[in-house]
Each structure stands twice: as C-alpha cells, then as structure tokens.
Amino acid sequence: MDLNRRSLLTAASATAAAGIAGGIADPAKAVPKGQIRIGTEEAFSTREHMRAMKALVDADPEVTRFDYKLWRMITSDLEADTPKRLLDLEKIRLAEMDEYGVTMHLLSLTSPGVQMLDADTAVGIARSTNDELAETIKRHPHRFAGLATVAPQNPQEAVREIERAKTKLGLNGIVINSHTNNEYLDNKFYWPILEAAEAFDMPIYLHPRTPSDQMRPPFDDYNMGSAFWGYGMETSTHFVRLMMSGAFDQFPNLRIVLGHMGEAVHFWIWRLDYMSAPGVSRGESPIKLLPSEYLRRNLAITTSGQENPDALRYSIDTLGSWNVMWAIDYPYQQTPGAVQFMDNAPITQPERDAIYWQNAKRIFNIQL
Ligand code: MN
Q1: Rounded to the nearest 5 degrees, what angle is found at the Cα of 238, between the Cα atoms of 193 and 250?
Q2: Confidence class for position 29, pLDDT limits 50, 70, 90
Q3: For 199-249, how does the pLDDT look when each residue is reduced to its tens digit (9 = 90+)?
Q4: What whole-number distance in Å separates Cα of residue 63 and Cα of residue 285?
Q5: Strands annotated E in 164-292
Q6: How big is the chain by its Cα radius of gyration, in Å?
Q7: Is 184:236 a contact under the CB 8 Å cutoff?
Q8: 42 Cα to the center of ligand 1, angstroms
C-alpha cells in the first residue's frame, strides 16, 4: 500500500470515527462522535440489600441451589469486583461510563431483588432502595434513571410503591425478577401490580432469576440454573404464561420488557401463532389476539448480554426497531464489548439511534 493511499484511508476512518457523514458509503460505520447511549439493564445493590441477602443464604447452608451459591459468593467479600461494582454508583461506574461514552444507566436492583426475602423485610427494603436510588438520580439526573423495586409478595404494598415511585420519586418503571415464591404473574393474586403498572405507565422489566422449584431439577446440574441457560428458560416461560393468561387483554397498555434479546421468545413467533390456532395444540386459553400481536404490542426487548448481530437483525425485523433497546447488563457483562457490538452492528444509523437511546427515552419516560 503506498503512503498516499494509506493516509487517505486513515483520514477516511478518522472522518468516520468523528461521525461526519460526507462520503461514507456504509451507514453502519457512521457512528456519530456524540452518540447517545442509554444502558437499560444496569444493576446495582445497597449495603442493606447485601446484608439481607447474606443473612438469608447463610441461614440455610445446606441449600445448594444456584442462587444460594451465587449469593454466598457475592456476599462473602464485598471488596471483590462484582459486589464492589454493584455497590458503587458514583465512582467506578461513572468513570467507566465516561471512558466508553455511555450517557446513562437505567439502574435496577440486582436480581433477585427482594423476592427471596420474607414479605415484610422485602417491602421495607424495596422502599428504602427506591429512596436511595431516587437520591442518586437527583445528584446525576443526566447520567442515571431507575426502575423501582417492588415486593410482589405483598401486592397491595407493591401497588402503593409503584404509585410512590412514579409520582413522588420520578422513577421510570419497575423491575420484577421472574417468579416470586415459585409463582408467576399470571396468577391473579399479582394482577393489582399489573393494573398499577399500566395505570401509571410504568413498564415492567421482567428480569431473570434461577428457575422456580417446579422447573429446576433439569437445571441443577452443570450450573445450568445460571445465566448460561436457566435464567432465559425461566423468564421466557414466565412471559408466555403471562401472555396466555389473557393479562394483555385485561391490560392492553401494559408493557413488559425482556432482556437478553427477548429471552428468545420472539424466535418462536411463527410457531406460537401456528400452534395457537383453534384445534391445533393451544388448549384452553382466553387470549383474544395472536401471540405475535401481543409480542409487537406489549413487549419490548433489550440486547443485554447478547452481543450477536444476527440475533439483533432478526429482532429488529421481527419486532420493529422501535421495540429494541440497548443494554450492557453491568457489572455482569463488560461495557466495551456492549458498546463495540452496537457501534459496529450492521444496522442503519437511524436504527442505531432508536436502539441506543430513543426507544428507552420513550418507553421509560426518560428525561435526558
Ligand atoms: Mn441483568
């Protein structure tokens, strides 16, 4: 390569990096320098939450379920990398966001939130966590937004907390970590939560946790109850149960958000429709629309922990670019990988803007 050609290419790539559109043939490469990036599944914890989780998992040393093992590890040394990053909100985190050009974290209390705790403890910790979260956001309104923690164990208190989170704390949605005491949100006991989420325009981020006791045995070996496989199976099954219960007919404006590229639910879109035709195999279900219609109306997905450009392209084409949001899954996934994935994904710049920040702003009512 002669020198002139090389310097020309260097100049061209510098231009591309700077986001100057002129002369760039491939829109996928033209990431503007000032690209806004909102990560929508970014975990944190508090000292109080850590203490409660430690007391819980240490009280039953014979339980070998994946979540118990994980939480014994996390709470054994709060100075280790993961707990340190979970507990930190304003130092390590903001520095890392700055380093990789991440504009904002939509924060959520790390899984399983308060859902393994007894109901009264859970209600109290949900409230104080949301207060602490709102204080942090108030200090950095352009860097953080947040999902409220609720205790589904007590639906009436959860409803009160949803109202408070929306009207007093200005939070942006709710996080629920899949099952609660092995029960799913299709159970009518929890429907006041769905009703309040719809009424207050608070999307429910249905985040994974270890499979329920009914599902768990096949996941107990090989650590399969983890994010490796069990989390996705648990959470996708939860969403399909919710859909088949008729919850989206009862609450047509309810929005569920699934991470990890939609926990693969929409990869079944054709088969869900085909199999739900009368007389095929659906059996008794009260749903009025086709599964695909709920997937496009009541679901949004994020890219957390799935840096796969083919899965991204499929998701955009299937659900619409307006239903896909970017997420890192901090601190469990690495920020540079998530940024490089979305910066280099073979999509148009308007699609990239939608996924990087515009959809999050609209769906979670985020003020930038
Ligand atoms: Mn996560």
Answers
A1: 45
A2: low
A3: 999 999 999 999 999 999 999 899 899 999 999 999 999 999 999 999 999
A4: 36
A5: 174-176, 204-206, 256-258
A6: 21
A7: no
A8: 7
Pairing of strands 204-206, 144-146: unpaired
pLDDT band at 64 (very low <50, low <70, confident <90, very high): confident
Q: Tokens 């079944």 appear where?
A: 268
Per-residue pLDDT reduced to its tens digit, 128-165 = 999 999 999 999 999 999 999 999 999 999 999 999 99
CA–CA dist 236, 284 (Å, integer): 20
Exposure of 273 by Cβ count < 10 A (0-12 exposed, 13-18 middle, 19+ buried)? middle
**What gap in Å lies between CA 285 and CA 245, rounded to an integer?**
7
What are the tokens at 360? 């999050």
Tokens of 365: 């009512």
The CA 147 to ligand 1 mean position distance, Å, reads: 13
Q: How many whole angstroms from 80 Cα to the centroid of ligand 1?
A: 18
Q: How far is ligand 1, taken at its centre, from the CA of residue 139, in Å?
A: 24
Output the CA 41–ligand 1 centroid distance in Å: 6
Query: Of the residues 98, 329, 343, 353, which is catalytic?
Result: 329
**pLDDT for the residue numbered 13:** 41
Give the DSSP H/E element, type plus range, for residue 206.
Answer: strand 204-206
- Catalytic, 58? Answer no
